[in-house]
Amino acid sequence: MWIISDLIFRYRRKRRMEEIRQEQLLKRVEAEYAAFQQEMMQKPKQEIFEAAWEISFYERILNYFQGEELPTEMTEDLLEQELPISFLLGSYLKTEGISTETFEDIYTLIWLALEHSSQAA
């Protein structure tokens, strides 16, 4: 019985640590989005209009992280990025044919960005 209790305890502790890391990533993404939003609000209307695609990108990425949970390894890798949305935007701009229309598309973008990042290191 003790072995089962120990396994359950370890599983719950591991799961809680994963939840904490997910929360840290979400907070980082939300902070980056808020700073981006503040920056945009300071710009003239024409510049905001011209940046509509970028605003949309930031909103889609934020919505993804508010509604989805990444595998632990991907979460850890993204937490290494000070500005995760900017990191993903850079990869998005370098990758032809990638979309952010669906959560599946965004997951693919995240995977590709992390894959390219690990190959460059």
Biggest β-sheet description: none
Computed CA radius of gyration, to the nearest angstrom: 17 Å
Taken as a percent bin, the fraction of beta residues is under 5%
The global form is elongated
Mean pLDDT: 92
- How many individual helices? 6
Structural class of the helix and strand makeup? Answer: mainly alpha
Number of domains as seen in the coordinates: 1
Unreliable segments (pLDDT under 50, ≥5 consecutive)?
Answer: none
Please estimate the helix content.
over 70%
- Strand count: 0
Instruction: Give the CA-CA distance, first to last residue.
Output: 46 Å
The secondary-structure element order is HHHHHH
Essential attributes:
single chain; 121 residues; mainly alpha; 6 helices; 82% helix; elongated
Mind explaining what this structure looks like?
- With 121 residues, this protein is an all-alpha fold.
- It has one domain (2-120).
- It is built from 6 helices and no strands.
